Task: inverse folding
């Protein structure tokens, strides 16, 4: 959980609090006040909350300019809280929360941009943008799978890799793109191969991500083939995606996640009447 | 870990001990003695150990009759211990240990049998048998993935399902067989769909296994298409595999795992000179 103090349009450095979901169904007001208490004055401070909140999700297609924040009741009179709505899709069933805020931010900074926005993370989303609308999106559990499989493969649970332009990564990626159905046996080959063939942890991690991102690209092909791509996300998980897309000859614009969140919050601020 | 007392060719009911891998590299002799101590008399008792031991693995193709057990040194003079060798494959890199014992047991009971032996479990192996030889095999991490993903999907970590002939299972299976590359997004649809569409835990579990077994069948197609199949394994994990193979019109023989292990141990006993 992060918080920014925004004054006259400029944001402070983010404050980081404990990683509690500020889901407003069970919003722990205390967690919020503990984090931002020092910023509160006698007059009510506007607090915008992006993420999984009780603000109702809106169906896609959706226009970011029409995603009006929803007022929450909060006991502390120093706080005037609003939740930013997320997006829901019925088929395939899918939801996005803070990803929707960053898309809105990206589009407010890039008016008229058409293409696909990929947000790598524990859950990686791919959203198709056309004529200012978020048309459809699809989320993959690849990052979660990497995290869950790390102990099975004797790897640290978070990737420490910075360079993905390696033969181990590109070979695993190509194998997975060509035979994406082989994921569960490719993972077994990693489990067996690492000790038997003395594969380094570095290469095992590269092959794990190559297998997962390759399978994801095979399934998400309509989202990137012949498309203009923007990648928004933390660098550690975005890098293997950017390298994979580059490998496929797809031009990629990289946008900073915090900057897109702030732009999305600024847009939401303008929508509050 | 299980142990049987075998006397005049008949086995006792199995004793179950703590689930310590009896890997003989770091064989805890004490664990072994604690488990079977009551069975030991003044004269040395022959102890056969199947599983991951220091007995060297043998390359495939391999003939079960030629997998001679390897003598281990054990300090306790009441024990004369042998490890049963496992099997190794270099490409794709793969290993099997107790699965090899059960295959040897199955073949000793079914002389001249040709086909494919599938052993569902945490790691599911598929082994091709031809002219009395174990020709090649391939292992999948699907069971491990189901276990790891259970908390993400708010499921118990072991499947409690007994009936797999359900629409939820067969639909997920067919979807995965048709589009196996979509595994990471099918799993996300389960994560999202369960709360949004009020999918029961029972159906979520059926869909999880449908997605995993379907993707596995898509990758293992050469191992079952037009083949004679035997499935050996614990019922809880074998059932979705049997249902899936039946669904594909593949005739399946089901063999009891303990019985095959005992037959494999009996064969190994005959190989000790």
Result:
């Amino acid at each position: 959980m992060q918080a920014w103090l925004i004054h006259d349009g400029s944001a402070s450095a983010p404050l980081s609090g404990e990683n509690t979901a500020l889901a407003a169904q069970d919003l722990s007001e205390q967690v919020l006040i503990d984090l931002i208490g020092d910023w509160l004055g006698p007059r009510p401070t506007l607090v915008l909350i992006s993420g999984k909140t009780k603000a109702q999700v809106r169906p896609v297609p959706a226009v970011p300019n029409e995603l009006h924040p929803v007022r929450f009741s909060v006991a502390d009179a120093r706080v005037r809280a609003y939740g930013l709505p997320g997006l829901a899709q019925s088929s395939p069933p899918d939801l996005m929360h803070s990803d929707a805020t960053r898309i809105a931010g990206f589009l407010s900074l890039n008016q008229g941009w058409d293409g696909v926005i990929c947000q790598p993370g524990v859950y990686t989303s791919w959203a198709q943008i056309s004529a200012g609308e978020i048309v459809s999106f699809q989320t993959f559990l690849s990052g979660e799978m990497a995290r869950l499989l790390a102990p099975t493969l004797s790897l640290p649970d978070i990737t420490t890799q910075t360079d993905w332009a390696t033969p181990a990564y590109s070979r695993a990626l190509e194998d997975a793109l060509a035979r994406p159905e082989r994921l569960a046996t490719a993972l077994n080959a990693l489990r067996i191969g690492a000790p038997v063939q003395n594969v380094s942890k570095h290469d095992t991690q590269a092959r794990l991500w190559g297998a997962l991102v390759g399978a994801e690209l095979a399934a998400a092909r309509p989202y990137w083939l012949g498309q203009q791509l923007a990648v928004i996300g933390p660098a550690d998980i975005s890098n293997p995606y950017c390298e994979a897309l580059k490998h496929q000859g797809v031009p990629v614009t990289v946008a900073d996640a915090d900057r897109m969140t702030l732009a999305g919050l600024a847009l939401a601020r303008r929508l509050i009447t």
User: Anything to note?
Assistant: Confidence is low (pLDDT under 50) at residues 20-26 of chain B. The CA atoms of residues 5 and 203 of chain B lie 41 Å apart. Chain B touches chain A at residues 88, 92-95, 123, 138-142, 144-145, 148-149, 152, 179-185, 187-189, 191-193, 196-197, 212, 215-216, 218-220 (CB under 8 Å).
